[in-house]
Amino acid sequence: MNRHAQGIYSLMPLIAFLVIYLGGSILLGDFYKIPITVAFLVAAIASVIIAKGNIQDRIYKFSQGASDKNIMLMIWIFIMAGAFAHSARAIGSVDATVALTLQVLPQSLLWTGLFIASCFISLSIGTSVGTIVALVPIAAGLASHTNTSVGFVAAIVVGGALFGDNLSFISDTTIAATQLLGCKMSDKFRANIRIVLPAAIIATIIYTIAGTSGSASEPTADIDVLKVLPYLAVIVLSLIGLNVMIVLLVGIILSAVVGLATHSVDIWQFIEAMGSGINSMTELITITLLAGGMLQMIRIGGGINYIISIFSYRLTGSRSAEFVIAALVSLCNLCTANNTIAIITAAPIAKDVSEKFDLDNKRVASLLDTFSCFVQGIIPYGAQMLMASSLAAVSPIEIINNLYYPYLVGLFGLLSIIVYPIFFKRKKIKA
Questions:
Q1: Rounded distance, CA 236 to CA 331, Å?
Q2: Are the CB atoms for 375 and 339 separated by under 8 Å?
Q3: What are the two backbone dihedrals, phi and then psi, of residue 228, each rounded to the nearest 5 degrees?
Q4: Mean pLDDT of 382-386
Q5: Residue 192 · residue 366 · CB < 8 Å
Q6: Over the chain, what is the mean pLDDT?
Q7: Are 380 and 400 in contact (CB under 8 A)?
């Protein structure tokens, strides 16, 4: 088998997943018909079957990918998030926070405020997952009180979360892109904001228009401000920059204290709520493990190197070079489901291309970060989408259908590649 055939062959598990889950769901017209866990199981089995070596070695390599330290950290976060979300809901914290929000914000600015809050929090803490954990339960509660699609409001939070993930100075993606391209974070930020700010403005207008339709129901009881404390603490501690695990632990402890103090639950009801929350994350954990193992097998099989080699051929100009960089990091993200890893993988090639075509390093860093975050935000098996769909209790596709901001970012990213040479003079190609 030649290198070209081997590269395509190693990517078959990912292709199989996309065909089974996305293709099958579109064909059937029902995104609940095919469980995403089943689609991943088939793809995971396929990744083991087509790999080289004896069966024990293949299973061991798959297990290594599934037990990667980053994946295990995510599973810890999922467990803690489930425990916090359900325990906070059990004591009435979600209802109290939603009621307070409805009282403070007028209906016309409800979704605008939610998007801006998501952008601000993610920009401050540098993590999209932490933002989603803090705000999606509140967003889902707001949806039920305003007769709005849960997928729509969850998408608002996901979009805002990706805004900060892309721009924050303490985001892993920003650090990776700037360090590997050798540019200042402030310079990359200025280059990046030119792409995403128009997208954020248009998204804000869309959410403001959406806020003029529908009607919010009035709170049926007095707002217990004490019950707002767990979510308020989670948001504030996140803004301070504490580790997400510590933030969630504090949230769980505060939920217990408030719940017992207000007699909303007894100790056994609280423990039962925590257990229910942890169990609710079973599907999410299963998907994460299967995806981690499958993507590891694709990497070992040469799938990612194959993608890189495709885009390493001779280019014709600076504009095509930028398109290649954007496509390269996008495909790497598709195959890794991790935007930081995608940037680290694509950056060496991007740096070589930028040197050959004398591209601006801060511009290249912004392209890597922008397109990796764009893809990360729209794939149904990314950590952000899985977390949001689990907390909102909706299909990832329902959220994906409403992701205005990420789609706008992708659009303006492509437009920036088309118009950038017009406004910024580039030097000739080096010999």
A1: 36
A2: yes
A3: -80, -20
A4: 86
A5: yes
A6: 83
A7: yes
Positive or negative CA dihedral for 387, 390, 392, 395? positive
Task: Name the more confident of 368 and 346.
Answer: 368
- What are the distances in angstroms from CA 102 to CA 39, 95, 99, 241? 39, 10, 5, 27
83's CB contacts (< 8 A; 6+ apart) are 248, 252, 274, 277, 278
Out of 72-86, 166-180, 395-409, give the one with best mean pLDDT: 395-409
**328: its two tokens:** 């390269």
Average pLDDT of span 389-403:
88
Find the radius of gyration of the CA atoms of the chain. Answer: 22
Contact by Cβ (8 Å): 182, 361? yes
**Which of 423, 420, 376, 412 is CA-nearest to residue 162?**
376
